[in-house]
């Protein structure tokens, strides 16, 4: 770990843990946090290039457990939050946990970290919300330029809210990603504002022509296009039709390639393989891994 301020903070958390602390370091060196009666920690899922499957970043996700060791959905925790202040508190806790757990690992060097913004927080974001996270990163001497804040998909009448939140985060030096529910919405948002990344669910799109149009528009705008939830060979084969050469690069994340884990790989375990070589993953192995993950703990998109 090269971040000395972060190293000192982790040492402080480890040596001063008590029943009253909201953040602590467990015996494995992983940061955990308390929210109401649940324990939170982080896992990370790799994002890969379509051209050679190199890792270009990680998506930070929260894993939560109840006091009875049962799995809890983070969305349910947000539902129980009585007001926007408690939602913001949970959001800040998750971001801090993700930042600590990501940058404590030497493999995080020069990698992008994607962190979600929950839909409920859009209306709760005030003028200093982005600044608060920036101050934390500065205090821990962590590189804000490698953190991409990912906004949820919005409906048409939330345009003003999107502008407010986007301006807030961009004013504080953060890059922005946004989820879109369709290729049409992606094309429309590219006309309105620059985003570092557009993220779309691979399971919701079937029209290759419209996808190619979105990919071209994203390339023109210097925006990355990420397909999330790539889980089957059929989906991967569909996406392979998008590009005829390595210049038309897009990005993918999903169980077909990587499972969310607390530890980043010691090296890019797939190497720089030829396009879609990883498609040999069997659907049986996918089902087995899904069952294991469901037993191990609830992973939430935070």
Descriptive report:
This protein starts with a helix and ends with a strand. 36% of the residues lie in helices and 21% in strands. It is built from 9 helices and 11 strands. With 302 residues, the chain is an alpha/beta fold. Strands 3-4-5-6-7-8-9-10 form an 8-stranded mixed β-barrel, surrounded by 4 helices. The relative contact order is 0.15. The protein has one domain (4-263): TIM Barrel, CATH 3.20.20.450. Helix 6 runs parallel beside helix 7. Helix 6 (183-192) links the parallel strand 7 (175-180) and strand 8 (197-201).
Keywords:
single chain, 302 residues, alpha/beta, TIM Barrel, eight-stranded mixed beta barrel, 9 helices
Largest sheet: 8 strands, mixed, barrel
Regions with pLDDT < 50 over 5+ consecutive residues? 271-298
User: How many β-strand runs?
Assistant: 11
- Name the shape in a single word: globular
- Number of DSSP helical runs: 9
Question: Given the helix and strand composition, which structural class is it?
Answer: alpha/beta
Order of SSEs = HEEEEHHEHEHEHEHEHEHE
Q: What is the subunit arrangement here?
A: single chain
Mean pLDDT: 82
Per CATH, the superfamily is EAL domain
Q: What is the CATH class designation?
A: Alpha Beta
Tally of separate domains:
1
Adjacency order of strands in the biggest sheet: 3-4-5-6-7-8-9-10
- Classify the fold: give the CATH topology: TIM Barrel
Rg calc: 19 Å
Helix content: 25-40%
First-to-last CA distance: 24 Å
Secondary structure layout:
Layout: H1 4-15, E1 23-25, E2 31-35, E3 38-49, E4 55-66, H2 74-80, H3 84-103, E5 112-116, H4 129-139, E6 147-151, H5 159-171, E7 175-180, H6 183-192, E8 197-201, H7 208-220, E9 224-228, H8 233-240, E10 251-252, H9 283-296, E11 298-300
Parallel strand pairs: 4-5, 5-6, 6-7, 7-8, 8-9, 9-10
Antiparallel strand pairs: 1-2, 2-3, 3-4, 3-10, 4-11
Helix pairs in contact: 6-7
